[in-house]
Each structure stands twice: as C-alpha cells, then as structure tokens.
Amino acid sequence: MKKQNYWIPLYHIFLLAAIALLPSCYSVRLISRDGIPEPDYTNNSQDFYKNKQVHVLDTTIRLKGPEGDFTMIQNCGSGGFYSLEYRSTLGGVLLSAITFGKVRKVKVKYVCLKEGS
Amino acid sequence: MATTIKQSIGTWDTLHENGPFPTKNLFITSLESEGNIPSVTDRYNDAAEEIQRLLREALSLGQGFRAIGSRWSLNDIAHQRDNLHVNAKMNLKKTIAADEIEPGSSFQPDYLFFFQCGNIIKEMHNFLASKGKAMHTTGASNGQTIAGCISTGVHGSALNTGSVQDCVVGLNLIIGPDPQDNVYLERESQPVMNERFVQSIHARLIRSDELFNAALVGLGSFGFIHGVVIETEDRFLLKRYVRKINKDLALELATTLNFHDSLFKIPGETDAAGHGLLPYHYKVFINPYVTDTDYVIEAMYKKPFQQGYPDPIPAIKKSIYRDLILLFTKIAESCQNNIPKLIKLLEKSILPPPDLEITGTLGEIFWDAGYQGPAYACSVGIDHRDSGRALDVLVKLAKEEGPIPGIYAMRFVKQSKATLAFTKFPVTCMLEIDGITWTPHNNKMISLQRFSTRMIEVLKANNIPFTLHWGKNADWSFPGLVEHMYGPNAAAWKQQRSSLLSRQQAALFSNDFLVSTKLDEYVGNVPV
Ligand SMILES: Cc1cc2nc3c(=O)[nH]c(=O)nc-3n(C[C@H](O)[C@H](O)[C@H](O)COP(=O)(O)OP(=O)(O)OC[C@H]3O[C@@H](n4cnc5c(N)ncnc54)[C@H](O)[C@@H]3O)c2cc1C
C-alpha cells in the first residue's frame, strides 16, 4: 500500500495562507496636533488625505554594510512634517527577516506642514 | 516674485462633493520666499501685483475670476466657470504697530492683526495664541480661510458675540488690475488704520459704513479680498458641557435665552444667588424622527485663560457632539450608505449619550473637522424667538414629505452689521440640517432640491421671517428669495457693489450663484 503523504496538502494550505497574508498589512499614522497640512484642493481622495498634499515613498532599501540604523532625508519645506503614515506588510517583514535586515521595504505616506503657517 | 501655477481642470468640486461643476482653469499662487523678500509687507505687495496680473489677463479675455478658500461651502458660491484661484498659500500674518493706528481710533494696536486671505482659522489661532490673543468666535471647526469665512458669514454659537466677519474692522480688496483698484475699506464710524498703513500696502483708503458693511459679507463678489484687519481679545478658555435635558426646557432656553431664571443649571455656572449664568455658547441637537422627551444640548462658559489645564484634544477627538455632520456620520456608520436602513435607524434611535466635560481654548474646542466625505447641509436663520415654531414646521416637513437622511441642530448668534449677514436678527437661531447625500430616485425619496424649496415655502406659509446660510444647500433660484429675506438690504448691497466696481469688474467677480440669486444686477448711475 502506498504511504499517504499528508504534508503535501498541508504545505499547500500553508502556502496559500502565506500568499493571502503577504499583502495584509497595518498602518500607523502620526499627526501634528497644532500643525496645518499643506493644502491641495485637487486632492479628492475619500479619506483623511482629502484636500491635503500627499507625498508617497514606496521603495526598497538595500543596505550594504552591517549598520542597523538607517535614515532617509526628505524635504518638507521649512516647517517639517504634518503627518506620517507608516505601512507594514507581512511581505515586508518576511523580506527583512530573511535578509537579516539588509533589504527593507519602505511604504510611507506623508504630508508636510503648510509653508508659513 | 509671487508665482502662479495654472491647471486646466475641466471640473471642480467642493470638499463635500456638492458638484462637480464645469471649470476651465485653477490658479494657485505661491508667495515669494522670505529669503528673497524678507519684509512681510513687501511680500504682501508682491502678491498683490501677481493677483492684479491675473485679473488683467481674465479681463482681457472677457472671462470671470473667483477666489476660493478651502472649498468648504456646500454649494456653488465658490465656483466660477472660467478661472478659480486658490488662495491657500497666501498666508502672511502681521501684528499692528502703534504708529499704524489712526489718531483718535478706539482700537488698541495690541489687539489688532493683519491676515492675508489664505490663512485658515487654525493658523490664525496658532499665531494669535503666540501673542496671548484669541479670535472672538469661529465656526465649529478650523479649516476655512478667513476670506472664505467672512464671504459667507461663518458663525459658531456665540450668542453674545457674533460671527467671524464681526471681528473684521478693515478690508483690503483688489478690484482690478490698475493701481487705483487696490482699495482698503473701513467703517467711517470706526476708523482703525492710518494713511501710513494704507500707503504701505499701496492701497486707496475708503471709509464708508454702507460700503464696508456691504463688502463684509460679499459672497466673493466684491473683488479679491487680499487681507483683513481683525480685532481680537485676550486668550480665554471655554468649559464645555454636553447634557441631556428636558426637551421643553431646551426649547424654552432657545426662545428666551433666559438662562438667569431657567430651571437649567450647571453646578459652578451660577451666580451668587444661584441663578444660571449666560453661556458663551448654546447648541441643541435634535433627531427629527424620534419623539423624545429629552434633547442633547451643548453649553460652554467663558473662563479666564490659565495654564496647566489637561490637554483637551484627546477628548475632543473622541467627542461626537462637535460638528453636526460628524454626529450624523457616527450615527450612520453602521448603515454603510444604505439609506432606507439609515432612515429606519434614525426612526428608532435616540441620540448617543453625552460626552465628557472638556476645557480648552477656542482653537482646541473647535478643532479639526472629522468628516471629509459627501454631505449636504441646509441652514436657516430665524429670530431666536421663532426657533420653536420654525423647528416644528421643519420637523413636520421632514416627517411628512421626507424622510431625508439628516439630523437637526440649533445654534444662536448675535446680530451682525453686515448688510447681507444671515445673522440679521437681534439673536439669530441657525437651525441646521446636516446629513449625507442620497439618490432620491433609487430610494423613492424627496430630492434635496425639492426639500430645499419646500423649506422656503413652509417658512413663508407660516409667516416666519428667515434667512439662509450663504455657504450651504438651498433653492437659491427661488423667485424673489433674497428680497424676501433681506428687504431693502438686498438693493442696498447691489447698489454698494455697483458703486465700488465698474460694470466690467462686477462681471469679472460674478458667478452662477450670484446670477441665481439675482444679486449680479448692476445698478447704473450710483455715485462713485
Ligand atoms: C466641515 C465643515 C464645517 C462647517 N462648519 C460651519 C460652521 O460651524 N459655521 C458656519 O457658518 N459654516 C460652517 N461650514 C460652512 C463653511 O464654513 C462656509 O461655507 C465657509 O464660507 C467656507 O470657507 P472656505 O474658506 O472654505 O471658503 P469657500 O467655501 O472656498 O468660499 C466661500 C466664499 O468665499 C469666497 N472667497 C474665498 N476667498 C476669497 C477671497 N480671497 N476674495 C474674495 N472672495 C473669496 C468664495 O468665492 C466663496 O464665495 C462648514 C463647512 C464644512 C465643510
């Protein structure tokens, strides 16, 4: 009698779950209490960002050396940031884990403070 | 040099998507950097030149031109088919020096500030707070521009204070491309700034009570408001209470505003003899579909500013009794745009439990708006003594000819001197209906357009004098509407506009809204 291989269907289930979870994500948004967002009255998005000028950073960073600390520099006028939303995906976490933190997916959405406010 | 970006947009819409409206161009003017022009006044004058350049261009093409604020108005008052101008980046701010004040003026320089048109209320709060000062009043949140606020007459519920335009004591208008088209208006009876200041902004001084009062709530049609001088006061705190009280008591307070003799008392907000104090702010929330014995009310009392009070923002952020539309969307959350389900919910739901007591500054209590999606808002101004009657009439309308997906609130505002201020009664009750927009045919319901027409008809039929909020939904082309609401003031407004603007300039600053209301009419042969 041929021995039943239970691992194949289980492996499939695991794979399917992993694929389904890959894009799953959460985001955290920080906003400035007293800040005024840079306006964009052509932004008709149906969420928090309506009327605001939004910048998106969607990139993958590859670190060469052993440094764990890493800084990206963005120009936000003279005022600074009004809001910053960091999005974390399972795919991004796995990628970082597999590469020991050398490859990092960055998904950040930010709004600058209104100039002169 | 200030610079302008031009975008061909095709259509334009309001924040709450009450359009879209066909529009050719959107202009966005940015100031020259402080590094290149360090003086605030020089940068202000540089921006004025840029606006005049745009006006010259529009005039030469025979087109219209209209400034928009934060596009928070819920109708087409901010719309113009040819050219819309975004002022948001024109946000200079300046204190006033003693040597800029007219000799003999009753105003104190420390309390006066000069703001460019594109400052939004929140940035004004921040700037004033840094000088220990505060605005007298604002709307229920802080995102409108100062020019947009005064152009429609934005109000809170400051029953002894007035509306936003009532703190404006000087208006700098650009009415055309030529040097004499830069004018600075004040009331003759209340001179504020001297020639030195007026010359510093390259303007021509006109002092006239009639002209100033007409231009103050100018509906965007008295020229480009470049800057305003506002009067402020020492910063203060507001202590806010939200309570459920007996409906009859809430309405009695609305019609009498007699807090002194009322049974409504809040511990700590009474005088030595135990009589209720007059609040700074009083607001009533009503679900028209439920026969409730209680209403939710919001009352705020003014307190001297002192440091060390707990940060109110976390509580304000959670509070649902802030903006009427926010309250409505919170109630409607579970229905996910299913209008029949929403109406059923409204028919059985009482209003959510009151919020916590909160103390904060004006800017903190009336903080950022919480809802950005599609919405409508109708707002009727009546003498507060008629508020009970008007409420009955409009609730009956919603019950018998509706339902419509919306709830009601009443706010109370002291009279404005502006010729076309909808706060025209000694104390005006602004009876508001806010909700989310619906498709009448799909749901076999009355349309918003029809409901707005019926609002006017039933108020007229019941002989209740009324006005309508200029920045909200209404049947603006209802025949004889503006004359009915304002009597001779409608003609006075047109006359003043015609005295300031040439026929060509009047057309430049006109739009469909003005045409619908017949306020675009040019009155020839008026003294210039
Ligand atoms: C979330 C929300 C809350 C609100 N709360 C309140 C409230 O509490 N009380 C209240 O009264 N209203 C309220 N409203 C209505 C709104 O505040 C008013 O309609 C206000 O006029 C909008 O200001 P704005 O800066 O967005 O101007 P816009 O709506 O863009 O424009 C209003 C008018 O101002 C004119 N204008 C703007 N800038 C200039 C300029 N530089 N020169 C000449 N004309 C100009 C426009 O042409 C237009 O006629 C609310 C609206 C929303 C969306």
In short:
The complex is a heterodimer of chains A (117) and B (528). With 117 residues, chain A is α+β, with helices and mostly antiparallel strands.
Outline of chain B, from the CA principal axes? Answer: globular
Largest interface: A-B, 16 and 25 residues
The CATH architecture classification of the largest domain in chain B is 2-Layer Sandwich
Instruction: List low-confidence stretches of chain A.
Output: none
Give the mean pLDDT of chain A: 84
Content-based structural category of chain A: alpha+beta
CATH topology of the largest domain in chain B: Alpha-Beta Plaits
Please provide the count of β strands of chain B. Answer: 20
The percent range for helix content of chain B is 25-40%
Cα-atom radius of gyration of chain B? 23 Å
- Roughly how many Å is the radius of gyration of chain A? 20 Å
Largest sheet of chain A: 4 strands, antiparallel
Describe this structure in words.
The complex is a heterodimer of chains A (117) and B (528). Chain A is of the alpha+beta class and 117 residues long. Helices cover 21% and strands 30% of the residues of chain A. In chain A, strands 1-3-4-2 form a four-stranded antiparallel beta sheet. Chain A is flat, with a radius of gyration of 20 Å. Chain B contains 17 helices and 20 strands. In chain B, a hairpin with a 7-residue loop joins β14 and β15 (294-304). Chain B is globular. The two termini of chain B are 33 Å apart. At the A-B interface, loops of A face α2 of B. The structure holds flavin-adenine dinucleotide. Residues 15-16, 66-73, 77-78, 87, 117, 139-141, 144-145, 147-149, 151-152, 154-156, 219-220, 224-225, 323, 369, 469, 471 of chain B line the site of flavin-adenine dinucleotide.
